[in-house]
Amino acid sequence: MAKDEDEIIENVTDGEYKYGFVTDVTTETIGKGLNEDVVRLISKIKKEPEWMLEFRLKAFRHWLTLEVPTWAYLDLPKIDFQDVIYYAAPKVNEDKSWDDVDPEIKDTFNKLGIPLEEQMALSGIAVDAVMDSISVKTTFKDTLAEKGIIFCSFSEAVLNHPDLVQKYLGSVVSYRDNFYAALNSAVFSDGSFCYIPKGVRCPMELSTYFRINAAESGQFERTLLIADDDAYVSYLEGCTAPQRDENQLHAAIVEIIAKDNAEVKYSTVQNWYPGNKKGEGGIYNFVTKRGLCEGFNSRITWTQVETGSAITWKYPSTILKGDNSSSEFYSVAVTNNYQQADTGSKMIHIGNNTKSTIVSKGISAGHSSNAYRGLVKVAKKCKGARNFSQCDSLLLGDKCGAHTFPGLDVQNPTAIVEHEATTSKIGEDQLFYCNQRGISTEDAIGLIVNGYAKEVINKMPMEFAVEAQKLLQISLEGSVG
Amino acid sequence: MLEIKDLHAKVGDKEILKGVNLVVKPGEVHAIMGPNGAGKSTLSSVLAGREVFDVTKGEVHFQGKDLLALPAEDRAREGVFMSFQYPVEIPGVNTVNFLKTAVNEHRKYKGLEPLAAGAFLKLMREKQALVEMDAKLMNRSVNEGFSGGEKKKNEIFQMAMLEPKLSILDETDSGLDIDALRIVSQGVNTLKTPETSTIVITHYQRLLDYIVPDVVHVLYDGRIVKTAGRELVAELEEKGYDWIKKELEEH
Predict the structure, then answer these.
(1) Element containing residue B191 per DSSP (H, E)
(2) H helices within A169-284, ranges in order?
(3) pLDDT single digits (tens) A25-47
(4) Is the dihedral of CA B83, B88, B91, B93 positive or negative?
């Protein structure tokens, strides 16, 4: 750890958004705009079976009837959904043989610190690398297959594991769920699929790395993760995008299903381009993530570090259906400059003796706005539910805002639900104390913020915890002074 | 070591330092005494570089360098240490981590490699013993939930870790019981070398029984109005500060 901490501190000095480069690669795109033909075209490009096209069309027709949701605490600019490219793919060979992959793409992922050659890859982590609309490489697929684990791009799953996809697709997040879920269901182009069979403990971390590269295109990916009885998996997603002046759209869906005694840990390091210091450019991030603790004693843990995006709209949630199932949500959301975030979690208690924990840490700086929105719901027939929620806000400076919208809907008297909230500010006296010990203000903020977020960061897999720590500090660069 | 010339400083519109002159040579211990509100703590904060105070006039040279031109962290790295009257709590920041960062920032400033983990822990144990610092406190957040005495010990412990050239002890005796006072003073005395200097800011004689000053100043209404040898301490204790006020009014 010692060395990593030193590195973190050194990194502060060059803390601009580091992932803002563009890869020069031949990209196949379709024209701007969205109609039924576009949906059919995407399905055709992906050589999908009929049932998949049907699913898309149903979702598209439903989407047409919906309005953009406006209930979030966001100053949402009008998005012209006809001015977006819904499919953009860097050219890769059909068989995805590694030697044939464009060196520019390999180079991109190397620059992002995600080497895709297995011998160079991060030890013990299998990666599915998604660039724009398609998956370019999945590592360690064969190693995992030996244990019966399926880990592949969503497109491959549609073709090779249609039974599983058909059974679970949309079973947790229906295309009717909300505006962006309907949009995603109509046009999603790729993502990751993962199935852990009964009794298998996945021997390595699984991870998907999402990269937006093409200009004016949106990214719409889906992740479907199924942990069968007694299975265990730890999964991580990371995201970056080039620095561009215009805003780009990202609308994703994640669905998780945990069967009897299964455990899924889902971690996110979200670092989409946040826009510049004046609030120009950046990704609009509208994501629906939901897990279903279907089985007895199943468990889903969400851990997220959100530092990027101009606008974040995201509420990873869990439906606790199985008796004795449990779920945790740990989140650090940082907003700086003109970033806006409305994020939180929902825990829906249905099964008896279900437990949930929500720990949300918001950090706001600059002119940003950071809102926590949560819902804890206990159904009428659910006995012995237990929830603990803690929402903390940390403010840097006096031009930013932090807001908390906790929701409670308890319909059974046996439930025990607790909520705690705090708001604090990094004080001038704290910074001066650090200065007097030879620690610069930037480094002092890094120390304080990382201390504040430790409870959440500690829940992440080691490699990503270090990355997340660095990110927090870089995101707050220049927020004081 | 330190030369202060005609230093004026204000906070908001209020002028607090109204022309302070002071020369501290290597190896010397200076005591600055004075009634409440005289500007004692302001002087230490201004020297350490706290930004809420505006220096309106005057110069401060530290080892030949223009101290006022440096940001607070560089003053610290140059070797100016201030023991806080009210040490600040920093929740979430582990004491060991905090100190390691501080020590390595000092080393980096001097062009030295960061200290390896083993060497750092060894240094820490050594200095901990000096002020009888409870090792358990090291795993807690900086000053969080420390007693008054523990906080002051922690200040002197940090001083020991950072090995400053000039230490400014701002009311270090306040809130200390007699045992803690003895331990803290012993620590300060042990750290003293012919090359380092100390400025002890205090209201009472108590601390100066342990840390014996070479020169004693009285700060009153933003100026140093009297400078003498250590015998002045006893005289002040006996006669109080009113005597000085009277003497000033007569002139």
Answers:
(1) helix B178-191
(2) 179-187
(3) 666 777 788 888 889 988 998 88
(4) negative
With contact defined as beta carbons under 8 Å apart, do B135 and B93 qualify?
Answer: no
CB A236 within 8 A of CB A269: yes
Residue A132's identity, in one-letter code, is D
CB nearest to A433's CB, from B90, B91, B104 = B90
Identify the CA nearest to B104 among candidates B4, B27, B96.
B96
Q: Which residues contact B78 (CB under 8 A, 6 or more apart)?
A: B62, B63, B65, B67, B70, B109, B165
Single pTM value for the model:
0.80
Kindly tell me the burial class for residue A271, based on how many C-beta atoms sit within 10 Å of its own C-beta (0-12, 13-18, 19 or more).
buried
Output the CA–CA distances (angstroms, integers) from residue A466 to A1, A3, A273, A336, B100, in the order listed.
8, 11, 20, 21, 18
**Shortest alpha-carbon distance between residue A115 and chain B (Å):** 30
Q: A205 falls in which pLDDT band (50, 70, 90)? A: confident
CATH number assigned to the domain covering B2-89+165-250: 3.40.50.300
Specify the DSSP class assigned to residue A276. -
* CA-to-CA dists, residue B209 to B76, B127, B182, angstroms: 28, 23, 10
Encoded tokens for B180: 């803690």
Give the chain A residue nearest B92 (alpha carbons).
A451
CB A403, CB A370: distance < 8 Å = yes
Mean pLDDT along residues B78-88: 95
Compute the CA torsion angle B225, B231, B237, B240 (nearest 10 deg): -30
The residues that bridge with B213 in the sheet, in sequence order, are: none
Instruction: Dump the DSSP string for A86-97.
Output: --EEE---TT--
From CA A458, how far away is CA A464, in angstroms rounded? 10
Map residue A318 onto helix, strand or coil.
strand
ipTM value, please give it: 0.95
Distance from CA of A303 to the nearest CA of B (A): 19
A447 and B50: CB-CB below 8 Å? Answer: no
- Distance, in Å, from the CA atom of A303 to the CA atom of A316, rounded to the nearest integer, reads 9
CA dihedral A289, A74, A215, A29 (to 10 degrees): 50
Q: Which residue has the tokens 């590195």?
A: A7
Strands B54-62 and B65-66: what pairing? antiparallel
